[in-house]
Amino acid sequence: MDKKEFVWNRDWIHSYISNWCIFERFKFSNALNNNDLLGIFGNNNVKAVKRIEGAGDYLRNLVSLSGLDKEKTIKIIGVNLKSRNSLLYKKIKPILGLNYAYAIKDNITFCPSCIKFGFHSIFHQMTLFKTCVFHPNETLLDSCEKCGKVLGKYLLSNFSNPPFTCECGLCLLDNNNVISIFNGWKKQFTIKDDELLNLLSLYKHHKEIPLLIHPIRISRKYNEFDQSNLSLLIDYKKNYYLNKEFEENKILKEVYTQNLLSSKSVLKDTINNYNYTFNHRYNIRSLVQKDKIDAVFYEIYMQSRDIYKAIKRYLVKNYINSHTTCIQLNNKLNSNDTYCGFALAFTFWREEFEDINLSQKIRQGPVESKIFNFECYLERFSLYPKGVYCYYLEDLLNNCFEITKDFDSIDINQIKKVVSNILPYLLLERFCEYLKLILNPSNYKSDNYILPDIIPMHLIVIDKLIPKTTIYYQNTFKKLKKLIKNMNEEKNICGFDKNKKYEPYKTPSQLVMLRMDLNR
């Protein structure tokens, strides 16, 4: 198919313009729809579909471009869109630190001031931004102001809407003159967000971007990010790349610099400790490579156990010491609806991280074997505490350190540093969430009073060029103290009378046995 058959100008493609906008402009200038585009630019996978209308979302995806032929896009549009995608990702990788696809919203999100000129940027589509980087006062939208419906998915969708037009017929362009519209497409918008410009400049100055780890991918399923968390993420990265100081004392920063001699010494002690604990396994043979790796897993497991128990003691001693009796009373599940908010929050917290059922087991304490229920599945890290936060941390360790591949390169001090900083932070943050649940239960009614699984924001930067690991996370102690203060100010937050003797809880089977005994 010849380029001369179409109305198109290579100058209509600018830096940071989205693929969706490129194809909307192509549709507009040639009076086409999305299925026409698939027929023109489609690869062999599209041709294999009997009817273009039957092509699925995978072939219509504007991030992976799985259904488009590279040679056709170069010949007709004048750009290799896949190479352009890769270059864009390299530029924004210092900001994202994750797979490009995770950063893109499902629904088309636009700036009202940009879209009226037929311009839509990839920054409009990124989950990191709530406002337009070209018009900082404009909030990004994903729905039509006339009918309220979403504009559509970020795909070459199967709908026959005209370009830049909602399903209801509202055109988002503010000009009907085709010549004026075409001339307007040559206009290049200027980024007015100085912080974004600084971060984008990092691509030019860093030959190799360090490994960035943060919990955005966990939040991806909600298709929404808390703006305060996003601001924190940007603050972390500005400090790391630009040495910009933090405001107040809300953010904690820990830096670990590799020390091979110290790490080898700790690793040797770790293996000896593992051999002593599991000596019944190795009284016949010596430790093999897999056993040495398991020794590292066991060391991290024991470290996480000590951290969890230390945090539990800290909470009891400093925040709920006057409610320890309430915890026992709460666990007896009295039938008079009396409760203590402090005890409830602590009970829910323990229940999640110890993976035990409410009430009787908590009162008795979990059963622990000699090796503290240590389990190693498929050569992966495991932690003593359970729950979504700890499963996240396990995945983080497994994905980042990949210790099963090269045992000799393990820096166990680095792994322990990450665990010793991030695990206490996650444990305290989760306790804060349970306090919020007790204080404002109506906020969680839509979720059946279940806490969301959104991981609190933090950042781990592992630089390969200089053997250094930097960890950023929030100072949770101020927030915890404020929540405890709010709890104390609430009326009837603790309904137990410490001087009253309450009847212990009886299970249904105990009640049946009691009645049988009375009837004799």
What's this entry about, in short?
With 520 residues, the chain is mostly helical. The protein has 22 helices and 4 strands.
Descriptive report:
This is TniQ protein. It comes from Lysinibacillus zambalensis. The protein is mainly α and 520 residues long. It is 46% helix and 4% strand. It has 22 helices and 4 strands. A 4-stranded antiparallel sheet has the order 1-3-4-2, sandwiched between helices. Strand 3 (459-463) and strand 4 form a beta hairpin. Helix 14 packs across helix 15 (289-318) and helix 20 (412-439) runs parallel beside helix 21. The longest helix is centred in the middle third of the chain and has 30 residues, at 289-318. The protein is globular and about 95 Å long. The chain starts with 18 loop residues before the first helix and ends with a helix.
Helix-strand layout with pairing:
Layout: H1 19-30, H2 34-41, H3 44-47, H4 57-60, H5 70-76, H6 81-96, H7 112-115, H8 122-125, H9 178-184, H10 194-200, H11 202-205, E1 211-213, H12 216-219, H13 227-242, E2 251-257, H14 260-277, H15 289-318, H16 324-331, H17 341-354, H18 360-364, H19 388-401, H20 412-439, E3 459-463, E4 468-474, H21 476-489, H22 508-518
Antiparallel strand pairs: 1-3, 2-4, 3-4
Helix pairs in contact: 14-15, 15-20, 16-17, 17-20, 19-20, 20-21
